[in-house]
Every structure is written in C-alpha cells, then in structure tokens.
C-alpha cells in the first residue's frame, strides 16, 4: 500500500502538465458547484431580508386582549413581540372633512414595521403623534379628539408619507388619513384589543409556536385570528401554503448543479482518459514486471485522491472569494443605480451578503467527490485491463480495428483526399469520437438552453413592462362634484409641464357586481381558483346556483380607445350599451398562463349590480363613516345596469394594470360610460381622472405633483400619484442579477468546454504527430494538413450541433413547462442563440486546432519520423 | 542528362558545443536512369543525405539541383509539391497510413495532387507488386514484406524523378529483400527510373550501377559498376 502511494506521488511529479490540467479541472468544478449553492443561499437570505425590511414579522395575532398577552410573552421560542392598538377613526379639531385613522405602535413596532417618516421624529409618548402628509397638519400642531367621551390632545411630532391605512372610501367619498401614536402599555386595560406581531428565534418553529399559543389561548376562551407573513415565510422556505419560491429555488439549483455535473464529468473524464491512455506503455511495462490490475487501479485512485484533496479546498476558497466579490459588485452597482432614484421606496436598502452554511459546504464536497469518482472510474477500469503484449507491440496510438467501408461519395467528391482522410480519422477511434461529440454536444445544449432561458426571461420582462412609468389618479370628493375646475387646472399644469411624453387616460365606474348563473362560470376559473389557495374565492357564492364576480367598467380616452379597438378587430366599434368583455385573466398562476373566466357569448346581456352582496355586512361601517362626516343622508341602494357583449377578448388595454383573477373588465364607449356614471353616481361625468403616464423625468414630475398637492390642500380633491420607475428599476435589477449570473455561468461552462476540446484536440494531434509527418514526407502540404484538420473540426462540430440543437430545444420546452410555469409568456426559441452557438462551437474547435497545430508542428518532419519510429 | 547535382552539402546537428557534422561538404551528381546505392557504417550520414534530398530536412549549407532547379529556393508549399512529384521517399518502416487501404495508400500522392488516377497503371503496378488480392486490406492486415511493397507501390505510382529508398529491405528477410530489389531493378531498367538506395547489404549494393560510400559524413568512394 505504502509503495503504491509512493509510486503514485512519483508519477504525479513526473507528469506535471497533465497533473496541472486535472487539478485545474477539479478546481473549476469545485468553484462552480460551491458557487451555485452559496449564491442560492445568499439570494434566499437577501430576499428574506428584503421582505423583513417591509415588515419584520412572521405571524400576527389579531385582536388579542391585553391580559392574554402573557401567553405570548412566556413562550421562549418567541424572540420579539410588536404591539399595535387600533384606536379607530376620528374627526379632529371639529374638522369635518378629514378623518384620522389612529393606531398606537409600541417601540418594537416602530422598529420592525416600516414607517415612512417625511420629517420630524417618532413619537416617544402617548400624547405625541405622527400624521399623514395629506392632512393639513404641521409639526408642532396640536389636535384633539374625542374618545369615549373624553378629550385627548396630541402633539404632532412628525409627518408620514402615505401609509397603507390611508384610504379613500369610494362609496362615501370620505378620506381617512393614517396617524401613528406611541403605545403606552400602562394605559392599556385588560380588555384592550391588540395586534401582536411575533418573530421567532428560529423561523422554522413558527407554526409549532403559533399552534401551541393558539390552543393555550383557546383554553382561555380567546380566539384571535392568526395571520402569517406568507411572503416572508415562503421566501424562508417555511410557508405551509406556498412553497413555490422554495421549490423553484431548489429546482433551479438542481438544474444548474445537474448541468455542471454533466459538464464536469465530461471534462474530467476526457482529461483523465487521455492521461491514462498516454501512459499505456508505461502501464504495460508495470504489469509486465508483475503489477496486478488491482494495484494499477489503486495507483490511479491514490493519484486522483491526492489531487482531489488539493483541489477541493482551493476551489471552495476561490468560490467564496468569487461569490463575495460578485455580490459586492452587484451591491455597489445597485446602490449606484438607486442613488439616481430619489424615492422612499427603497429606504433602507438591504445589502447583498454572502451566506453559507456548513451543510452547503459538505454537500458541495460530497458532490464534487462523487463527480470525480464517476469521471475517473471508467478510465481506471480500462487502463487496468490493458493487455501487455498488444500495447508494447502497438506502433501507433490508434489501433485500427475496423475495416473501413467506403467514404460517402459526395464527401470524397467535395473535399477530395482531405475529406477522405478527415472522415476516416474521425471514425477510427470510437471512444475518442464519442467523447469529443459528447462534450461538444453538452456545451451546445448548455449554451442554447441557458441562453434561451435568459432570452425568455427578458421576453417576460418586456411582456410585463408597460410603456408607462407613472400613474396619477385625481378624485373630486365634493358631494356635488364641484371641484371640476380645479381638476381641469391641474391637468393643464401637468400637460404644460413638458415632463409628460405620453399619456393614457381612463375612467372607472365604482366596482359593479356581475351576478351570474354558475353555468356561466368557466370550469378553468373554478379549477385554478381552487388551486390557488386564495383566502377568498374570486367569485362569491350568492346561492347554490348563482355567483358574483366583481366587475370594472372602464372607458378610455379617444386615442387609446381607437387604438385598443383596432387591436382587437379593425372593424369593431361600440354603440351605446355595448361592451367588450375581457374574458381572460393573465393573473400569475402556475396552472395556466391565462384563465378563461366566463362562458359568455357575443350578443348576450350582462346584468350588473351597483350593490355588493356583501354590502349588508359593510353597511354599518359605511353608515358610521357617513355620520362622522355629517353626511348621513347618503343613501346606498342597488341599481341594475344592462350591457350587451359586442366582443370578447383577452387583450387588456395597455394602460390598464395587469389584473387579477378577481376582476372582470368591461370596456364601453364614452357615451355609455357617461350615462352609467350619471345613473350610479348621480353626477355628470366630466372628464378622465386616471392617467398612465410615460415620462423620462419621473422625479421632476413627482415634485410637480407634490407641489400641486400642497396647492390644492384645501380643495376637496384627492391627488394620488405613484412613481413606478423605482419599482420598475428594482425589477430590472432583479432581472439584471439573474442575467449576469446566468451569463457568467455560461462563460464558465464555455471555459470548461474549451478546456475539454483543447485537451482532446491536443492529445489527438500529438498522438497522430508521426502519421502527419509521414503524410508530409510523401508530399502533403501544410495547407492540405490544415484542411484535413478543419474538415475534422467541421464534421465534429456539425454532428454535435445537430444533436445538440435538437436536444436543447427539447430541454427548453421541458423547462418552459416545469420551471418557468409561474410566468406568463409564450414558448419561443431564439434563433440568435442557435446562430451564436454554431459560431462559437466552430470557433472553439478551430482555434484549438490551430493552437495545437502551431505548438506541435514546429519540429522537422525528419526529426519526428526519426524519434517516433524507434 | 544530369538529374541531380549536389554541391558542397553540409549538415550540422545541434549547437556549437555538442554539434554533430552528419554531412561534411559533399558533392556528387546523378544521371537520369541511374540506380545508385549508398553504403557506409551506422551514423555515417546516409539517412541524413536522403532526408535532405527528399526535402524533409534542410541542409546547413550547400546547394542541390534537381532537374536543374535549386531546391533550397523552394517555399514550403513548393517543397511539398516537390516531395509529391519529384522525389519520393521510401522508409525502412514502411510508413503506411493505417486508416487507408492498400489501394488508397498507393494512390495517396496522386490524390494529394488532385489528379485522376490512371486505373490501368494502378492495376499493372498492383499485379507487379503481387498485391492483387490485398487491394482493400488495411496495412495492419499485411506482413512486413507486403507493407514495404505497398510503400514502393506508393512511391512508383507517383512517377517521381528520383526514388529515395532508405534501407527498404532492412526489416525484411532475404527472400523478401531480394523480391524488393528485383522489383526496383526491373522498374529502373524498364522505365529509366532514377533510384538512390541506402543499404547496409553489400550484396544488394553490388546489384546497382554505382556505389557511393560514406564515412563520417564524407564520400570516401564513388565506384561505377559495369554489369554484363
Ligand atoms: N536529429 C538529430 N540530432 C542530432 N544528431 C543527429 C540527428 N539525426 C542524426 N544525427 C546524427 O547524425 C549522424 C548521421 O546520422 P544518420 O541517421 O544520417 O546515420 P546513418 O548513416 O543513416 O546510420 P544508420 O545506418 O544507423 O541508419 C549520426 O552521428 C547521428 O547521431
Ligand atoms: Mg539511417
């Protein structure tokens, strides 16, 4: 054993070139595999942190009485509890138009929940308060409210940017503004109801923890609702309901690791195969002096073990360096990009950091060892079986065993003698031929599939990307729509600003409700709906036979409207009381890329209600709100509207947001819309109030809109704007990360291919050195020799390309159906990728042939013949 | 007619300290149709001379005229054509192309010249070589003597101005050697084929028109033999 080890080390030392390329290949493989796992872990960590930034909570107990909180506090698994008390909606300082929705946050909530503070400081005590910027209040103002017939006075310490509990109720035209005060636990009574958000020590314990607490609370006769942060939990891989992220991540990682493994085995196999074959004579000599097959195999195993032990740590360390460098570069890149977007959307941006676990390292090491083992197994078995006599007697490396039949006629006609020689050369050694074609085919497949994936990714991005980046909604909430003049003024200012390049306007009616027979509900909708784990059905059951779908009636400005109609059918036009039914939902779902919603046919009538069947429950709330603004006589009664379907389509006007399963869109002409507006709202429809804007100066537009908001602070107008360029940028960044990663992966794979091809070409040429010298001696010119080599390359390349392109199209199709199932786009093959791979493959082959040729044939023909014959 | 003229040919291997003078200022000329043998001790420079004449090695100094053309002035590709058409080499170790069958090996120089092979001539040559039933065999399916006959066939098929044979019988038994020499002789007399033959065997040398003896890279004897 010891002697074999010695022999192994001696051999390694005497074959520096070969040892170097084996080491290099194992290091490359280690880098790739460990980088993939580390990147995946880091990405997951990044996404989880990003999500925590939006609200660091894992589960929420809603409406838990204060005295039951001890159950949570005594649970050791809980790391942090954040409390919110919803104080309710109040009018303040006798102001009748503006309402405040006041919530009290404790210090943990202040820390864990995003509070977008525009100016000022967080409240430190229960008589300090933050108010929304849309109120008329300023810092240091005082407000007084009435709660339980007692007067409370708050001191304004800061101004909030809009919060998610600002809302504008379209039924009552009442706007409530968010306000946050400090939660003082001393002032809480045992019966105060709180929302308690928790973070566990270990996120994987969240369900156990909440279940235990729930049963304890139940035994105390308290049944608060539990809400989970499914987004966060699913990113952390812990969500019960939605494991899409985790599954996709694991699937992606496995696909990449699979790809790398195949490419690696092909690389290491080739190099090791050549390594052993080149020393066939030496092995034959070894066995002629009495080494057994087992001993020979052991020598090689020792060699490979020594090399692997050196290569793996080097590769893993290098991969850590590489990944952290990569992430660092990305991080800086994003900070750079983000610094150009002045928005609060990306407040405390999360930095990309490298994360790894010991499990991932052990997994990588095991995988590399397995890959190396399988790569060297067959060459070692082969070499240990070498026949002494045959090898020592063999004059050339290639033993020709096959009796060649004729070379295809067209080939010898077209390429003459060089074609014959190239063809026969290629066919002479099967294992060599297979290795070469296999490794080329693998890289072609990898290239086309990864490129295709990237292509589809950016395709998808384009599909999602609309040609607007700014939305603006105006609303007149004066009871009799008296603020029209102001709205016209605002529009004028905007139009003359010069910031707007393109503008699409639309107007929606308040949501209407389509009550339909269940037979009209499409089965696909029912199926997808049942699979989507939605909290609510997209359709509400009215009774056994009928359901309700919420419905949005929209009209568009003339240009957008005409454009839209012509997209559906050039001869289409709508008369009064006719509509276009958008009957397909492209809501993201993994079952179908679009879902048919209803079974309506052209010509049928739709009956729409103004009243939600759920409204009876909401009636009380609405009444309360109405009474708060002193407008209790606003009557809410149901009206019915009938529209006939003129066309059914899946096409959504470009300016409308991509919509969800829950909505049906109806497009009507302006006259119909005005009439419906009058009927349902009781006022004249004057002009469009919702805009999708294309601007190249979103920040300037933002400032303008803010100044308008300030100017019309006292008018009964709501101006809502949202700058989408930031979120679009974030989306773009995500795509960019993916693309850069995939492209660098591609480069890596290509390096692997080049090394493999170079090895094969180099060894094949060096083995045929004598043969070529002999050919030259009888009169073959350099040009003819190059032609032979190029033809061989052409044959190999062409065969590999044909196989590779077919397989990769298959793989792309498979990927399309499995991996990318959540995204919405059509299957397409990118011809450019095929074209590039054709060029690259030939380039790799020819460049390695040229390189090997140049290195090998510097010697005299006579010298080669003299040295290699004896 | 002078087909080959060698003037002051010198070949030095290696660099200054451990250089070997394989050929030392050699001059001689050969007439068309001559069958010349070159003998000499091992290491005397015979192969070196043949390799230089065959255009697969470059001389250190001196000039070689073949058909009145200085081959030192040829470019690489012209040299390839020179090897293909003018001076064909035959080696001791046959040097056949293992992937080509007998017929293809014989036709190789012609195919490299993109010429259409003369079928009648090929048939003739193959029967002359006694390889009629081996036409489609691969080299490793042939005996040593048969392989050498293929190599000679390849050389003759190209119809070169000069045949340069480096110990073509060195690897063969007496019977096979005699057959090869007879073949070459026949070809020499029948087609006026110029042949330069390197050999160790004085008996073989005796059958040629002229014997050149080399020693330490110098010609020490140049004798013309008259056969009856
Ligand atoms: N490539 C080379 N490098 C250095 N020396 C060489 C080389 N080739 C030949 N020689 C030397 O040149 C001299 C002549 O060699 P050559 O092969 O011509 O001899 P030879 O007469 O053919 O011998 P043999 O009968 O053994 O074949 C020898 O001394 C040899 O060592
Ligand atoms: Mg010799």
Number of domains of chain A: 5
How is the largest sheet of chain B built, in terms of strand order?
6-7-8-3-9-10
- Determine Rg of chain A (CA atoms, Å): 36 Å
* Helical amount of chain B: 25-40%
CATH homologous superfamily (4th level) name of chain B: P-loop containing nucleotide triphosphate hydrolases
Distinct compounds present:
adenosine-5'-triphosphate, magnesium ion
Q: Which structural category do the helix and sheet elements of chain B fall into? A: alpha/beta
Beta strand count of chain B: 10
Give the ordered list of helices and strands of chain B. Answer: EEEHEEHEHHHEHEHEE
Alpha-carbon distance between the termini of chain B? 22 Å
Here the CATH topology of chain B equals: Rossmann fold
Q: What is the overall silhouette of chain B?
A: globular
* Major beta-sheet overview of chain B: 6 strands, mixed
Number of helices of chain B: 7
- DSSP helix count of chain A? 24
Summing up helix and strand content along with how strands pair, one would put the structural category of chain A as alpha+beta
Describe this structure in words.
- The complex is a heterodimer of chains A (870) and B (228).
- With 870 residues, chain A is of the alpha+beta class.
- Chain A contains 24 helices and 24 strands.
- Chain A folds into five domains: 1-54 and 239-394, no CATH class; 59-228, no CATH class; 401-466 and 725-870, no CATH class; 467-499 and 696-723, no CATH class; 510-687, no CATH class.
- In chain A, the strands form three sheets. In chain A, strands 1, 2, 3, 4, 5, 6, 7, 8, 9, 10 and 11 form an eleven-stranded mixed β-sheet that branches. In chain A, strands 14-16-22-17-21-20 form a six-stranded mixed β-barrel. Chain A has a two-stranded antiparallel ribbon with strand order 18-19.
- In chain A, helix 7 (244-278) runs parallel beside helix 20.
- Chain B has 228 residues and is of the alpha/beta class.
- Chain B has helices at 46-53, 76-85, 102-112, 119-129, 144-157, 174-191, 202-206, and strands at 2-13, 20-31, 35-40, 61-66, 69-70, 87-90, 162-166, 194-198, 210-215, 218-224.
- In chain B, the strands form two sheets. Chain B has a six-stranded mixed β-sheet with strand order 6-7-8-3-9-10, with helices on both faces. In chain B, strands 2-1-4-5 form a four-stranded antiparallel β-sheet, covered by helices on one side.
- In chain B, helix 3 packs parallel to helix 5, helix 4 (119-129) packs antiparallel against helix 5 (144-157) and helix 5 (144-157) packs parallel to helix 6 (174-191).
- The longest helix of chain B is centred in the last third of the chain and has 18 residues, at 174-191.
- Chain A binds chain B through residues 396, 398-400, 403-404, 416-417, 420-421, 424-425, 428, 771, 774-784, 860-863, 865-866, 869, and chain B through 47, 51, 54, 56-58, 76-77, 80-85, 88-89, 91, 93, 95, 97-101, 104, 108-109, 111-114, 138-140, 154-155, 158.
- Bound molecules: adenosine-5'-triphosphate and magnesium ion.
- Magnesium ion (MG) binds at residues 46-47 of chain B.
